[in-house]
Amino acid sequence: MPKISVTVDGVTNEDDVEPRQLLVHYLRETLGKTGTLVGCDTSNCGACTVHLDGKAVKSCTVLAVQADGSDVLTIEGLAKDGVLHPMQQAFHEKHALQCGYCTPGMIMASIDFVNTNGKSDPTEQEVREGIEGNLCRCTGYQNIVAAVQYAAKTMSSTGA
Amino acid sequence: MTAVDDHPAHEVGQARPRREDQHLITGHSTFVDNMQLAGMLHLAFVRSSMAHAKITNIDVSEAQGRPGVHAVYTGKDFAEVQGNLPCAWPVTPDMVNPGYPSLAIDQVNHVGEAVAVIAARTKAAAEDAAEAVLVDYEPLPVILDMEEALAEGAPLVHANTTSNKSYTWAFDSGQAGSGGNVDDAFSGAEVKIKRRFIQQRLIPSFMEPRSYVVQPEGEGLTLWSATQIPHILRIMLSLTLGLPEHKVRVIAPDVGGGFGGKITVTPEEVITALVARKLGKPCKFTESRSESLVSAHHGRDQIQDITMSATKDGTITGLDVELTANMGAYLSLVGPGVPVLGAFMFPAIYKIPAYRFTCHGVFTTTTKTDAYRGAGRPEATYAIERIMDEMAAELGVDPLELRRKNWIKHEEFPYTTVAGLTYDSGNYEAATDKALELMGWDALKADRDKRRADKSTKQLGLGISTFTEMCGLAPSRVLGSLDYGAGGWETSSVRMLPTGKVEVVTGISPHGQGHETSFAQIVSDQLGVPYDDIEIIHGDTASAPRGLDTYGSRSLTVGGIAVVKAVDKVVAKARKIAAHLLEASEDDLDFAGGKFGVKGTDKGLMIQEIAFAAFMAHDLPEGMEPSLDSEATFDPENFSFPHGTHLAAVEIDTDTGQVELLKYCCVDDIGNQINPLLVQGQVHGGLAQGIAQALFEEAVYDADGNLTTGTFVDYTLPSSADLPSFITGSTYTPATSNPLGVKGVGEAGTIASTPAIINAVVDALRQYGVNDIHMPATPERVWRAIHSGFGDTQPAAEQTTAHTEGTSNSDRSGS
Ligand code: FES
Ligand code: FES
């Protein structure tokens, strides 16, 4: 079995992994990072979204071996010293989650969207198109869009 | 009428962000698949690739020898409980139930039916071994079309029945005495139209796949389940498996959405329990998405034949509904009752003097159907709201005017409908007027007419849907009269702890609705203790032992009221203790803001002080039991009836058939609102699901009975880019059947939006001679409807039939 070295949420791990193991299963089963969830078999839902070297990826489309030498950030590494990331705070304040199953992936995708988009005031349409790879069955997206717009403001002012 | 804005209390009515969020946004959720128990085995199922076949042989030898495999079982291994998955709603005494095995034994009846199960050390090992199980099938005829299934001489889905019909359930207002006779209404009617509407099959598609973990424990077990119904499940498991109920514990931790889709007892749940008990080891099963789509229950799937008569001036005189409802291959927990619930909602908000309803439940070789958001009521609302538009078109009147003419007026409540329900309160005028204004209806109409006159390739269609629904499932005696297999009450206990904090136990079991927040808001006001001092306990039969769970918008309307009743009892007991300690008479005590004050003095005691005194029990009134707690059960005298008006504006590109939802506005009246933020969230999510039925979603089978929409690639859930932002508003007509005046909001958006959208689409297409479009209104269907000769002009009246399906591959209706 190949050996990989991956830094996840600031901790470096060395593990033997099956060549076929997906990153999401490595995170969940080997590392016990249960914040990253699985919602589909086809890379459609985005529930498994994490940051790989700073970019959002669906961790069900990445093999664990492909993450060798990389830096992975999951929802569990987002809050620092108990302080929520502005995107987490925005999801809470704007009621952008109901069952919460899509939420970790949605938050990770949304942060990447804001970073890539680079504006403190993305339009509704930009946000809608920016996060369309992540499905939510509960919220109808309206409050998620509002949360992303709200967080974009805070993120640009705090540099988060 | 009390507007929620006028509510004097502090917490109720506030748009408080949820206390549930913290662990979910930081990734510390307790979804079942996150569970790891020492020595736990993982299960994988072998599923049928055939829609209908005899099983001639199952060879498990190769699978058994695989590394990590502990056991392989087929249906025969669980003979003692096979055939027994529960159906708790025998809607008629002669309903045919062929039995439902958790694992198929001799025959499979739909693609995806489980035929064998593997228990292995890892999920991957179990899945690998499942691939190695060889099943020999001898094909039987595939039966997909409900009408063909009912035809004389049709092949049978189940060998142990004599027809594919499970039941016929009927209601006739003439016979029931709630209205006139439909045949009389129809004979000599001035206008009579008949339409066929199709409720396509949908898949609830909660985002969390179903997941179960079972820990066997002596005679019993603990089950962690992604379920909406831990309490009902406990009873059902106990009865199905023959386990002592008090040794069965069911825990519904975080549950990632349900929408009715997690309201059954599933084969996978039962098998996980059986395997865990057989092996004496904890076992886990988590389905993949494709397993979920093919084997978790589906929703809707009805053929609706509906006839309506009216006078020339637009007064509706009679309504006849004949439904054919697809049960799929098996009767699921409440599946047969879903169309029956709808029976009460076809008359909707209208004064209809004569009504007849007949429903046939039919077996086909497809996945079973059961509740999906709204369960029966969206289907009914769709048909009635569509035919109101068609009747308006026949009569040449504005669809809104036809509704106004026929709806129950505000001053006419309470109103008993032709279906026998008594609507306690409502104000359809207010909701409609507000919606029209918020939408900017008149300007949109002008725009629509201009585009029509200009023959623009971007046509505008405007759609209306008014609706009411029956929420708060209870009252128990009414459910009993419908042969529903449970009561409709709910229970709660409220415990004041010595330090003044409060624990509230409820029998409802949320899965994203935010009850911990809204219930704490209610208790805070009623008990006068700070919101943060209140804990809501639910979803575990050990800590919340009694209840009837969450579905049908019953959590607040029934469960919330049980909480209020329990609080009332706590306050009553506290008042006695306060009177004793303050040496005052109970009548001389005021209770406000958590303080019992002696009238006319500044003497008083806080309820927290009384809780402490009740705990210490050093000085209580003669004969009083220590501790300040109480339990209450609430069984309402009536359902609640939220209502609303929804308006849609769609733009149709006549060159491509693309339908774009330009603007959507709804005004829902759900009575008083506990937390408007949560209400808004429920409405948004409901709208997305209803709109998706109109425009995106459909479960499709090919001729061999394979589900061709078996992944999220093919089963189109709307994404953020597919939906607009919605304009939402509220009016407030409190329910009179419960002390909070609440009506329930979980289904409202879903129920009303589907017909609003399709009415808008048909409004745009009517100029091309089109008077119906099958759902979902895909670009192809819309384009064909415009361009390929469908939608020939229908007769102006008398038995006209819609047949403007836009696709040539036709549908199960045979129209
Ligand atoms: S689980 Fe990765 S996209 Fe669905
Ligand atoms: S909050 Fe439930 S799926 Fe998004």
TrEMBL record, chain A:
It comes from the Bacteria. Pathway: Alkaloid degradation; nicotine degradation. Residues 2-78 form the 2Fe-2S ferredoxin-type domain. Signal peptide: none annotated. InterPro entries: 2Fe-2S-bd, 2Fe-2S-bd_dom_sf, 2Fe-2S_ferredoxin-like_sf, 2Fe-2S_ferredoxin-type, Beta-grasp_dom_sf, Diverse_Oxidoreductases. Keywords: 2Fe-2S, Iron, Iron-sulfur, Metal-binding, Oxidoreductase. GO terms for molecular function: 2 iron, 2 sulfur cluster binding; metal ion binding; oxidoreductase activity. PROSITE patterns: 2FE2S_FER_2. PANTHER family: OXIDOREDUCTASE WITH IRON-SULFUR SUBUNIT (PTHR44379). This is Carbon-monoxide dehydrogenase small subunit. It comes from Antricoccus suffuscus. The lineage of its organism: Bacteria, Bacillati, Actinomycetota, Actinomycetes, Geodermatophilales.
From TrEMBL, chain B:
Its cofactor is Mo-molybdopterin cytosine dinucleotide. Residues 26-141 form the Aldehyde oxidase/xanthine dehydrogenase a/b hammerhead domain. Residues 796-815 have a biased composition (Polar residues). Residues 1-22, 792-815 are annotated as: Disordered. Keywords: Molybdenum, Oxidoreductase. Signal peptide: none annotated. Pfam families: Ald_Xan_dh_C, MoCoBD_1, MoCoBD_2. The lineage of its organism: Bacteria, Bacillati, Actinomycetota, Actinomycetes, Geodermatophilales. The keyword Oxidoreductase applies. Gene3D superfamilies: Aldehyde oxidase/xanthine dehydrogenase, a/b hammerhead, Aldehyde oxidase/xanthine dehydrogenase, molybdopterin binding domain. SMART domains: Ald_Xan_dh_C. InterPro entries: Ald_Oxase/Xan_DH_a/b, Ald_Oxase/Xan_DH_a/b_sf, Ald_Oxase/xanthine_DH-like, AldOxase/xan_DH_MoCoBD1, AldOxase/xan_DH_MoCoBD2, AldOxase/xan_DH_Mopterin-bd_sf. Residues 1-10 have a biased composition (Basic and acidic residues). GO terms for molecular function: iron ion binding; oxidoreductase activity. This is Carbon-monoxide dehydrogenase large subunit. The keyword Oxidoreductase applies.
